[in-house]
Amino acid sequence: MTKSYHSLDEIRTHVTRIDNEILALLAERRQLSLEVAKSKIKTTKPVRDQEREQALLLRLIDEGKQHQLDANYVTQIFHTIIEDSVLFQQAYLQKLTNPDSLQPVVRVSFLGAKGSYSNLASRQYFSRKQTKLVEMSCSNFRDVVNVVETGQADYGVLPIENTSSGSINEVYDLLQHTSLSIVGEITQPIEHCLLTAVPTSLDQIDTLYSHPQPHQQCSEYLRTMGDIRQEYTSSTADAMLQVAELQLPNVAAIGNASSGELYGLTPLKTGIANQQENFTRFIVVARKAVDVTPLIPAKTTLIMSTGQKPGSLVECLLVLRNLNINMAKLESRPVIGNPWEEMFYVDVETNLKSEAMQQALEELTRLTRFIKVLGCYPSENVKPTEVDYPEE
Ligand SMILES: O=C(O)C(=O)C[C@]1(C(=O)O)C=C[C@@H](O)C=C1
Asked: Locate the ACT domain: which residues (predicted)?
């Protein structure tokens, strides 16, 4: 039965109370997932249990129906809750596995000023690690790596691939020569908008400030804008800063709406990326490698060069297949100074410490001219568990 209320304020008071209760319950559930993680250490059960998730989701969909909540709504909410629970457990277990890896305050370097996509990714990555961030903006990828190598920062966050513009070659090339290890990854949705500093209209825009990557990711929409002057910037944040300083009705920047707010910019047009689902995967690098507990899914990144013998790459890939090691990504880059030679980057969904991976490394070392492990790190990609619920 619905209660009757006298005023909007009164209704809002109740909504606020319910929202607070929801938050308190979410926090309580999160604490319980910590207890679950502790019990899994004792029983050495993996964090992810998709059978349990299936059962839980089906039960909640059924329960939701009793309250006229549709199945999609319930599923979406609980996918988010379970993702948080998995990542929270992972962060806790990783802290126990690497007790001195995370200090209460960490210095993190990234490309661009406040509000850049790399800055947003850094904040997101460290948000579950219960540590305070000191942010270090850098004007190029080389510096992001340098400041970690020289000890001025503890971590560096670098974009490595985007779902619409592909691999970020400059970052792959830096990985060839660095002594740093990959210790983490995070995938962030990228929501590009056209941002302006003053009220204006699309037909007035004749100059666009943007980093080359987002420009490429929005190429289809930008073509529809006709002949506009392109000013390339060293980061998305720099594009927003310049447009904010100009305060002109004919200039716009490509950037994220919430970052734009930091610069006093408002979206003139949202959702301008070629692909609706536009994601960037970032890697986190540090001076010291980490171990990944076997209770959570891990990724290992290798680089290797096979020389120019025909079929040598295939031989390497067969080693992985025969050991049942799933390859998540293969990228090749030229070796600077050695024309026609390629360096291969391989991401596999296997823990470096596993028997299979150790055997693979042994065999690959025999087959390659050069091989190096760039790092083993927790996979933060929590794929939602699908459920088949009966149609009405
Ligand atoms: O029950 C568990 O085993 C949990 O780890 C908790 C939980 C959840 O949040 O409900 C999270 C991850 C598992 O895949 C299943 C369920």
From this structure: 301-378
| 92 and 127 belong to one structural domain | no
Q: In degrees to the nearest 10, what's the CA dihedral of 176, 180, 184, 186?
A: -60
Is the CB of 53 inside a 6 Å radius of any atom of ligand 1? yes
pLDDT higher than 70, residue 148? yes
Mutation test residue for ligand 1: of 53, 58, 74, 385, the one with most atoms within 8 Å of CB: 53
* Residue 293 placed within a domain: no
Closest residue (by CA) to atom 16 of ligand 1? 53
- Name, in order, each residue with C-beta under 8 angstroms of 75's C-beta and a sequence gap of 6 or more: 57, 61, 387, 389
Q: Which of 28, 42, 48, 49 to mutate to test the pocket of ligand 1 (most atoms within 8 A of CB)?
A: 49
Q: Structure tokens of 34? A: 């910590």
- Ligand 1 center from residue 20 Cα (angstroms): 24
The pLDDT of 107-134, averaged and rounded, is 90
Structure tokens belonging to residue 97: 């596995």
Q: Are 277 and 325 in contact (CB under 8 A)?
A: no
Residue 25 CA to ligand 1 centre (angstroms)? 16
| Domain housing 240 | 192-269
Decide which of 258, 286, 314 is a domain's last residue.
Answer: 286
- Across the range 41-50, mean pLDDT stands at 95
ipTM exceeding the 0.90 mark? yes
Q: Write down which residue in 78, 96, 114 finishes a domain.
A: 96
| Three-state SS annotation for 179-237 | CCEEEEEEEEECCEEEEECCCCCHHHCCEEEECHHHHHHCHHHHHHCCCCEEEECCCHH
In degrees and rounded to multiples of 5, residue 85 shows phi and psi of -65, -45
Spatial distance between the Cα atoms of 286 and 148, rounded to a whole number of angstroms: 7
